[in-house]
Structure formats: C-alpha cells, structure tokens
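A quick aside before the break. I want you to see a complete sequence-to-structure record at least once, exactly as it would be stored in a machine-readable document. Don't worry about memorizing anything.
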Amino acid sequence: MTDLVRRASDYATRAHQRIDHRRKYSKQPYHVHLEAVARQVAAVTDDPETIAAAWLHDTVEDTPATLEDIEELFGKPVAELVEELTDISRPSDGNRAKRKEIDRRHTAQASDRAKTVKLADLIDNCKDITKHDPRFARIYLAEMGRLLEVLKGGNEGLHEQAREVHARSINKLGEEPADAGEWSPGLDTESLPGFAGPHFRRMFAELFTARDIAESLLSFDSGNSCEDVRRALDLHRQDVASIRINGTVQGYIRRADLSAGDCADQIRHFTVDQVVSGDSALSDVVHVLTRHDYCFVTGLGEINGIVRRDDVNKPMVRMWLFGLITMIEMMLVRLINEHYPGDTWQAEVSEKRLAMAMAFQAERQRRNQHCSLLECLQFSDKGRVLLGKQQIMKRLGFDSRSVAKRAIKEIESLRNNLSHAQDIVTHDWAQIARLSQRMEEIARS
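That is the input. The structure line, written in tokens, reads:
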C-alpha cells in the first residue's frame, strides 16, 4: 500500500466515523463498503490515485469534507477523480428519476479511471441492496442498467462483473426493474400534519433565498498581476474573487493560489454544481456547500455573489432552520395526540422528565400562557414517545428505531445550538445537510 493510499484510507475512515456513518441495512461502519470498493479497484489497477479515489469516493457527498479539502490533502488529480464520482444533481432538480439522469450524464463524461471506481461501487451496492431491500432494488437495478451503458470506458473485467451481478440480481428478484418516477423512500408526506401544501413549500423554498446571505464577489480582469490582486483581496479581507476575460466572468481565483505573473494563470473554472441563482432555495446552497468551499450566486445573468459555509451562521439561515425545527416539533405534538389519546403518552415518559414538564407548565400558566403538558415536554422526550409506535416511524420514513433515535438526537443538538447562538457550522454541519435534504424531499413531494 502506497503512502497516498494509506493516507486516503485513514482519512476516509475517520471522516465517516466522526459522523457515525453506517451502511443502511447491515449497520456496519461505512468504511467496510469503502474497503470493499478499494479492494476491487486494487485488483485491476496498481494506480495509487485511482485506489485513493476509491477510498474517498463518498467522502464529499456524505461527510463535512469538501472537494477543496481533498485537493489540499491528496492533490488535484485525486480531487478531480472524486469530483467525477460525486453526484451533481440537487434536490430541487426534480424527482429521483430526473436527478439520476442528470447524474448519469455527469458520469458519462467521467474519465476511465473514475468509471473503474464507479463500477466497483455499483457491484458492492447492488449486492447489498438486492439482498436487503427488494422493493427499492427494482428501482436501483433500473438505474444501474442505464449507468452500465455509459461506463464502458472503465476496466473491462469490472464492467463484465457488474453486468453479471446486475443480471443475477434481476433473476433473484424474479421481476423486471422499474423506473423511479416519483419514488419516495417511504416518507408519508400526505399524512404528516403541517408538511403538505403550498404554505410549507413557500416557507422552505421561497421565503429565504441565496441572495439573502450572499456576499458581493470581487472581480478582476485577467490581465491583473497576482501581486495587485493579492493586495486588493487583503484590503477587503477576502479570499476569493472572480476573473473576467474579455469583460465576462469566466472563473475565479483563490488568494492561497496566487504566486507570480498574471492572475489568469491561477484561474479555476466554475463547476456546474457550484453555481446557483439568486432566488435559489437555501437548501440548494447547503447542498453546494456540502461539496465545495464556495457557492457562487448569479444575479442579472452574471456570477456576482458568493456564499461560504460560515455564512450559514447568519441570522437568515438560523431563522430558516429554527422555523423548520419548530414545525417538526409541532408535528410531533400532533402525532402524539393522534396516537396516544387521553394523555396516555405519559406512560412512555420517566417520572423525572414528566416532573420537569409539569414544572415548566406551571411556570407558563403563572404567566397566563395557556399550554398543554405535552407542549411543555422536551423535544427529545417527544421524540422518544414516538419511538414506541412502529406505524409512526414508518410515516416519518424511518426504517429502524436506531435511525429515528439518531435523527431526533441530531435535531435536538442543532436546536440547542441555535437557541444558544452557538457556531452551528462547526458543531452541526452534518445535521444541517441531512435536515435540509429531508425537508427538500417533503417540499417537493
């Protein structure tokens, strides 16, 4: 194992462990999947960059790491491979079928090395999904079939193996693959109180937008020297600026890259998944920032704004997130009332926690604030009450008690840090990304 591969293995393993990322069905630590993919790739090539990318192929999609982090630690070639292996579609691009077609076109343009990694990834995922989730496997196998059509540049042996695994899986299911269409992972949005209709969609997707948090982006002509641009960036305390070629913005430069000569020598081109319009939903901005250090914003037909991950700490985003969590808590109250008539939910709460709720209710009533005892229960306690009802977890789209418990814990952590004006980017980025994606699924359903 080369030093590059060893470092990639260690980094990817730790990155997924820090967020306790596990395989959906087996609950194994996620690095088990990464190791399986890397082992298959290493069996057909000794190229260390390709094997390193196999270890890192899900790091940008699933952990707080960005493509810029990968480039800094492992070099540009590895980062480019990981970028080719990272989906570019956004939740707002439409239903699953539309998003997967966007990602398929992206994969079709990938290098042969990236296609080799993708083939190994498909093989491992196909076996796992077919074994544990026949219902979803019909959708996955249809998508895999279409991907195999554009992966012919990858390793021939892996391509043939992927085709065989695909065929065996179809035979095992005993039925043909199915198009995704409006596929939903099980979230019963129609019966979730407060999360249906135009009012929620307006609050989630329209009330707060990218332009509300974007900062102006400095811009320079390509003929400017690196020294002049660096001086201007220092003056304005900025770390990035756009570059104009023949009067049109064509890319951007980072202060860290500037050395000598013209600034155009250090130009980086905008990627298709790095730019949003000014009226894009904040969920699109969060989605971009899970992959990149910078989200660029267009206005009047030109890129003129920028959002960094730290901008998620701004009041507008905090209001948006707190509003979503408040709606979730209100939904929990209504579901408990529906499934536990006559305050029978009290049997699911410890005496100590119930006493705390009673004390809080007494204090609010002393201030002439009418509220039920259930409303005075802590968020985590409301969540634990619902964990006792399998039908509720199904309506919420959770496939196990442990997944539901983790989601409740994450939302409570984010809620507490929002309430106490803590740095939510440092402490809760993974939670913010997951909450945003979850709410996007509801808003678009």
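Two observations worth writing down. Residues 364 and 370 are 7 Å apart (CA to CA). The chain has a mean pLDDT of 89. We'll return to this after the break.
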